[in-house]
């Protein structure tokens, strides 16, 4: 699956979910001020599952590979810092979940935040999360959606899917294990303000 096709699937699913611009604005406006925002990514996940269940096992592997490749592109220190602010901390596993959520925002947003992670402060979901002191864009389930779709459509266990996916990836290049971009101290507010001024102001109040 080439990047155009992959991002086309993401765009189609996003358009039918609460991440669509008008739907997101209406959802946020209708929520009580203290209500969590978890339904937004859940709606994307549910829509993605419906789409994945139409795919053959080979197509699921191709989608999964494209998703992995997109997530590796987002393995970027400033984005990890953004996840650290939004999540009130961000382990290696949590950063994978955060990158899943970034992919759900679509190709344009992923390109924007790779260029400048602080532009994430302009996304309506992030703005709403800051106002509610809520955590958004962390979605572990999106990483496992192809395996669950495989299980649902074939009746075979998820372990068979993982073995199939490993065979699919055999002989393909391994991406770098270290994040790209500048590394800096996530626990120093002044440093974070220098790199991510808007997100830091949103999510890290002065002592």
Automatic annotation (TrEMBL):
This is DUF4240 domain-containing protein. Residues 1-151 form the DUF4240 domain. InterPro entries: DUF4240 (IPR025334). It holds the Pfam family DUF4240. The lineage of its organism: Bacteria, Bacillati, Actinomycetota, Actinomycetes, Micromonosporales.
